[in-house]
Amino acid sequence: MRENNQIFALDIGTRSIVGIILEKAEQAFVVKKVVMKEHKQRAMLDGQIHDVTAVAHIIGEVKKELEEEFGPLTKACVAAAGRSLKTEEASATVSIKGRKLEKDDIIHLELMAIQKAEQQIKNKFDDVNAEYFCVGYSVLYYYLDGQKIGSLIDQIGNEASVDIIATFLPRIVIDSLATALKRCNLDIEALTLEPIAAIHVLIPPSMRRLNVALVDIGAGTSDIAITDQSTIVNYGMVPVAGDEITEAISDQFLLDFPMAEKVKIQLTDQDTVTIKDILGFEQTMERAEIIQSISPAIDHLATKITEEIFRLNGLKSPKAVMLIGGGSLTPGLDERVAEKLDLPKNRVAIRGIDAIQNLPLEGVEVTGPEMITPIGIAVYAKQNPLQFKTVYVNEIPVRMFEVKKLTVGDCLIQAGVKLSQLYGKPGLAKIITVNGKAMTISGSFGSPPLLLKNGQACSLDDYVNDGDIISAEKGNDGKSVELALKDLLNDFRKNITFNGDHYEILPTAKVNGQTVTEDYIIKDRDIIEWRELNTVQNLLSQLHLVPEPFILKINDQETTIPQKSDKVLKNGKEVPLNTPFADKDVIEFIQAAPPTVEELAFLLNWQLETSLPITFNGKDVLLKKKITVIKRDGIELEKTSRIYNKDSLIVEHITYKPFIFQDVFRFADFELPSNPNGDYLILKNGEQATFIEELEPGDQLEIKWLAKHSNE
After folding, report:
1. Cβ-count burial of 4 within 10 angstroms (0-12 exposed, 13-18 middle, 19+ buried)?
2. How would DSSP label each residue in 275-288?
3. Could you give the angle at the alpha carbon of 678 between the alpha carbons of 674 and 679, nearest 5°?
4. Do 122 and 128 touch, CB atoms closer than 8 A?
5. Of 145, 427, 502, 664, which is least surrounded by CB within 10 A?
6. In the structure, what pLDDT confidence band is assigned to residue 308 with cuts at 50, 70 and 90?
């Protein structure tokens, strides 16, 4: 008879069934014996028992061998395979217009997505009436008005959405396990999930605050569990594992499956391997050569595993990865997983049972990574079995697996309560037409549901205990909103400053073709038309101001002078007339003063005159000559004359002629002697010259008298 301190556990896998006897000592568990037997036919598929009789037969063989040494066995600790878990991605969206999002709103949104994922699972596997338990979920993305966002807390917008990935356990998996054991006269002593069992013996609670992935690579599937923030956050499975490597060896070297499996095992510890193919040819090959030939299969396995890790971990790499299971010994697999996750090589490790603390072994030959899960089942299922909890939701009993701490939200989902229907409906909207476009004026939002746990107010993320009574009452519906015309126009009311004066600018509005006051209450189907003063040009028109360009007709050709055109400044900067203006803008309308001839010549790059500096009889003189003549109505204009908008001008540019000596008499004072008598000299730069001598800048001119006077 088995003693009370002995534990019998079964790991029912795709390829084989492992039975293990553990003995609980004072400070540790001791592995007493391990029995492994392979299925004789394909009785398991994706972790679910498909042939109960065949599986029960192998369980019976394992049980019989262990009973020969340890006596009758009547109860066994078992685990639902991680590969029986089903993962599904789903999205949910809610309208949040006019409301700031709070924590309960976000939990409600996530739970809606979980319900949708559960329905998708049922539809996908054609088992609408099947029972599924959500054992974990992760948020992939939040969205606000269609844009990805890190957090929805306190956000304001029109629409909030979430993408989640959720993991479910079918109830049928548990039922088939119980049936197979019953055929061998065994009861389920304790039940857990394989990923949970492996994690709890390999990753203690102190390490679970780290983001770590545990991958159990078996024969047919690779099971994945993710830890983070001191808990297990997600589970998953990919349908590729060790058999894919065996099949690659079989295909590459023409081996039957058992021989290929033998070669795969030899690759873990032998430098050379001798193989004999189905044609009878025998050859000895280097380990590296065989690994190179099956490299694509190894790479495919690493790719599938890392893709699922990304998906389960919110599309990011974990801090570390632990590989267990027989398939983890595939040569080079750990390095490829590290590379694809962009992790250092020392962050991906293969772990055997030597990594389990306080676990003495007595005559156990197999100590590799394939033994982690069987030992985990024996230890953890006994210590922390999955518990059923019964919770009453709106007086209906709901039985649930406690894979994690159960919340009020979990209970509502399992009870089939449609979370989207718990919030009160928004008030009736009014549909109106504004300037030819349909517009909906939403009513007030409905209130959130009234949630009670054992008669006390609670929230969706409150934890529950066995026997708790939960009441979920639909929130109150919202009311139809009353909106006055002035409320609708408020967004278009502008207060501005124009040329130093303050103005309130209001749209002019009509309802159903009639002029109404601002206090008019808008009714459903009203047709509202308004004209908004939204540009500088609209504003000037309202004030009967028309900016004009400065245009002249010059020699019968129209020319616009932008510098002398009217200007509009908005907040101190010149802007075009089609510029929009906003509340509190400062607008100035500036009419330019008519320019003088001199100012116009400067703007149009005309040279009105030319000049030449010289010296005459020791004094500085500036000679000047007109080279541009401007006439209006036939009258020549002076430099200081004003030019007005739309004036017609005749502009004549005179051909330049050099200055000569005689020009000096128009600009310099020259007095003849009182009694001129005799000759005079005309000098330029000290040399004799004539009155028609051409001049250059800086020339020194002189006129000297040579007359003689008597002393009488």
Report:
1. exposed
2. EE-TTS-EEEEEHH
3. 115
4. yes
5. 502
6. very high
